[in-house]
Write a structure and sequence with these properties.
8-stranded antiparallel β-sheet; 258 residues; mainly beta; Jelly Rolls; 20 strands
């Protein structure tokens, strides 16, 4: 018997047929068998969606110089407002969203643009997930080797108490849609996305002891005091992954000559 887990986030609701086959230690393949999965609830997983058209009332707290502004409109939704986080002498400027019950499998995405003078090679977080006030994952940005026309972005995640990082990915100056996917588990995964494409995934993570209770959006720490200007955010989406389907399939024996 083979037991597998399949994350159906992003699958359409309805019936899906999958085919599975097994391989033994001698690299012999058995016959393929099919199984049917019924996916439901993928249209009801939103936790928070905010294009900042109606102020900041959906958020739990505002820290620092954070306002809505027409200067920060980035998302292609026809809106007239975005989120402006003012960089001032290294002071943090972010929004906080509390989740008392906690979350264990989430995705977050948002549009981001930097209008900062003196963006440092010292990385700083623009999205952070926290458990009991301690960061457990995030997205960081930094200057791209002194180039004024691009910047670098990377994701990071706490695994067994140790922070692990994706590579730095260079993006041209301007607005980009950034995103992450995080899950709790003994062999979990974490991904970083840019402009709708997953650019890197970290697998085999030990995040079983973590639960997400708070999310910060905006420059929240490790800010270079020499930076000035603002960072812009828009079109924020925060979702809970649908249920993961557990399947049990009896596979044919692998037959081979001795």
């Amino acid at each position: 018997m083979l037991v597998g887990t399949i994350n159906v986030a992003g699958w359409a609701n309805g019936a899906h047929t999958i085919w599975v086959r097994a391989q033994d230690n001698a690299f012999n393949w058995g016959g393929a068998v099919s199984a049917q999965l019924i996916v439901s609830g993928n249209n009801a997983v939103a936790i928070l969606a905010d294009s900042f058209e109606a102020g900041l009332g959906q958020w739990t707290a505002v820290v620092g110089a954070v306002t809505t502004s027409p200067l920060a409109v980035l998302a292609p939704d026809g809106g007239t407002m975005g989120l402006l986080a003012q960089i001032d002498a290294g002071a943090p400027a972010y929004l906080s969203y509390l989740m008392p019950p906690g979350e264990t499998d989430v995705q977050a995405s948002f549009y981001f643009a930097s209008n900062v003078t003196g963006l440092s090679v010292q990385p700083h977080d623009i999205l952070v997930g926290l458990m009991d006030g301690a960061p457990i994952f995030g997205i960081q940005v930094q200057a791209a080797g002194g180039e004024a026309t691009s910047f670098n972005v990377r994701g990071w995640v706490l695994s067994g108490g140790v922070p692990l990082y994706t590579n730095w990915h260079s993006l041209a100056d301007g607005a980009h849609k950034l995103g992450i996917g995080w899950q709790a588990g003994a062999a979990a995964s974490f991904y970083l996305a840019a402009d709708g494409v997953v650019v890197e995934t970290l697998d085999g993570l030990d995040t079983a002891d973590y639960t997400l209770y708070e999310l910060w959006l905006g420059p929240s720490g490790d800010l270079d005091p020499a930076m000035s200007g603002a960072e812009y955010f828009d079109g924020f989406e925060f979702t809970r992954a649908p249920e993961v389907e557990v399947i049990r399939i009896f596979l044919p024996l692998v037959m081979h000559n001795q």
